[in-house]
Write a structure and sequence with these properties.
By secondary structure, this protein is an all-alpha fold. The protein has 16 helices and no strands.
Length: 415
Amino acid sequence: MLEILRALLTRRLEPAHRLLLGQLVMFTGIAALFPVVPLYVRSHGGTSADIALFVAGPLVASTLVQLPTGHLVDRIGRKPVLIGSRLLYAALSGGLFLNLGPLWLLALLRVGQGASGGAYVPALRAALADLTPPGERGHRYAQLQGCEMVGLLLGPAIGGAIALWEYSGIFAASGIAVLLGLGAIIRMPETRGAGIEASSPAPAPSAASRWWWLRPALLVPSVALAAAGTMFAMYDVVWPQYLNARGYDSLVIGLSISFFAVPILLLTGPGGRLSDRADRRLLVPAALCVVAACAFTYPWLRSIFPILAVGTVESLAVMLVEPSLFAVISESTTASLRGRAMGVGGLFEAGGGAFGAGVLGALYGIAEPLPFLGGATVCLLAAAVCSRALPRHRPPGAAPDLRPAGIARAEVDVV
């Protein structure tokens, strides 16, 4: 974060800095929606089921657009998708602010927001990889995570303040934030075909390359991202209920979320460097095991201070997982396939989120420990897979492994 602040103050914003700064501003506006969306639905006469659909709809839409958008990013470029998806999001925000139509129509607008937001993500991650050398991508994706943590710290408070005036005002705020964020990236050059690896031409298409995605180098980190997405979305549904059952009000719940984000924000730099230098086959499984242990611990805690202490440990582990996994994905394919590779990773992560919110979140109503134990089990399974098959570091400039699983899997056991 200090690097971005320095670049902003000295007016020496590189293209990657513009992308990160834009995401910080945009995610702050989007995070403003988190605490208020259920109240918005209630104000329109919606039931608990309507709230669940209003929240789950964008997640499902985001999952479904990952692969086709990744293909589009590779065909037409990163910048058209970055700009087009955000303009669509802002337009849909305007419709939600104006309360156009009945609740079912507003829910469709939210689904559209989920699709446009999902389309933005593969383009963003592919462009960041284009602009960053292979040995530094863990650090770059950690910076992206840090920018989102800033949004998570500021956005909910902004949304809560706006909701005192008008619930629908949060959608105006998110739309304006997205447009402001676009101002940071609209002058950014197109990166497709002009990235760090442009001097190394991609191999000619072959029968094997049609199955480029059936490789441990891509599927293993994607499976781990599904586990991470499962945990994040499960907490979105369960955490407020969990703390409320222990007698804590909405202020404490909000502060606990902010407290979770602080270590990630402060240690973004060291965490990113560790991701780039450590053996990821050891680092990622260890971090997932810590996340699982924390999830297993929560149901047995009652006081807020032990809960926050466990949350701090968990945040330190979470900080290492996603940047490491997307760095692996960026190094597993050529630049010509990078958008599609990010789409595959995004598909698994968003799909895990839908599972965590819809399935594990629903288990809380049956017994409080079930969603925590279910999430812990998912993380342990992902850790076992990663410890066996997650690719190790590749030297900068090394050709990516483009063999399909049937060829590559035979060599996994000898690595």
